Amino acid sequence: MSDISPKLILNAVLRKIWIVVLCAIICAATAYVYFSTFVSPVYRASASIIIANGAISTDKAEYIASTNITASTSMLSTCVDILKTKNAYDFLTEEFNNKYSAKNYMSMTNISIRSDDSLFIDIRVSNTSKTLAIKVANALAERAPEYIKSFIPSAEVTPADFADSAVVISPRVMLMTATAGFVGAVIPLVILVIVAISDTTVKGEDDLTDKYNVAILGNVPDFDISSR
Amino acid sequence: MKKKEKNILSKETDATIVPEKQASFAIVEAYKNIRTNLMFLLSQKKNKTFVVSSALLAEGKSSVSYNCAVAFSQLGHKVLLIDADLRRPSIHKKMHLDNSRGLSSALVKFCSVEDAIQQKNSCLDIMTAGPIPPNPSELLGSEAMDELLNELDSKYEYIIIDTPPIGIVSDALIVAPKTAGIVMVVREGYCTHDSIRKTLTSIEFAKVRLLGFVLNCSGSKSKTSYKYKYGYGYNYGYGYSSHHITTDTEKK
Question: Are the beta carbons of B219 and A222 separated by less than 8 Å?
Answer without folding.
Answer: yes
